[in-house]
């Protein structure tokens, strides 16, 4: 899950649903949420996200990028966590949900493709074919605007 700004809101419902499933049935797949915002003051739902992360007991990893505090943007976090993301995308065949600004989504998609190309040794056309397949089968979903 990758979001910036107010686009974090749809993921709260998703996480609450997964948490209920976790509590009722036990076990859900590992999750990663990359979230970008300006600074700590604009970090929406920070406390609630922390409580959800604690409740999952290690199944959910949250990474926040504060653009005004030097942590960069979400796409920089994709790049700096490339090994973990490679694991999610290439080995675990994770679904990807990107929600937020068009600029962020385009940059994140390029970073994700770069991570996959590096791991799989693919050419750019092979990576783009993979992305097309993921979008067509709805394993990668985008909710973008602006």
Automatic annotation (TrEMBL):
Keyword Flavoprotein carried by entry: yes
Cofactor(s) needed for function: FAD
Keyword annotations from UniProtKB, A to Z: FAD, Flavoprotein
Residue span(s) of domain Oxidoreductase FAD/NAD(P)-binding: 1-109
Catalytic activity, EC: 1.6.2.4
A GO MF term: NADPH-hemoprotein reductase activity
GO cellular component, one term: cytosol
Short name of one Pfam family: NAD_binding_1
Protein name in the entry: NADPH--hemoprotein reductase
Native species: Aspergillus carbonarius (strain ITEM 5010)
Higher taxonomy: Eukaryota, Fungi, Dikarya, Ascomycota, Pezizomycotina
């Amino acid at each position: 899950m990758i979001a910036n700004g107010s686009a974090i809101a749809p993921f709260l419902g998703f996480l609450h649903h997964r948490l209920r499933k976790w509590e009722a049935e036990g076990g859900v797949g590992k999750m990663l949420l990359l979230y970008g915002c300006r600074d700590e003051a604009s970090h929406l739902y920070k406390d609630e996200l922390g409580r959800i992360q604690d409740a999952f007991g290690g199944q959910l990893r949250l990474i926040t990028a504060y653009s005004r505090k030097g942590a960069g943007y979400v796409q920089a976090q994709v790049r700096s966590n490339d090994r973990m993301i490679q694991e999610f995308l290439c080995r675990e065949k994770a679904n990807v949900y990107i929600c937020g600004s068009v600029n962020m989504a385009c940059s994140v998609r390029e970073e994700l493709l770069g991570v996959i190309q590096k791991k799989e040794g693919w050419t750019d056309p092979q990576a783009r074919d993979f992305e097309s397949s993921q979008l067509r089968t709805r394993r990668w979903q985008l909710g973008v605007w602006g």
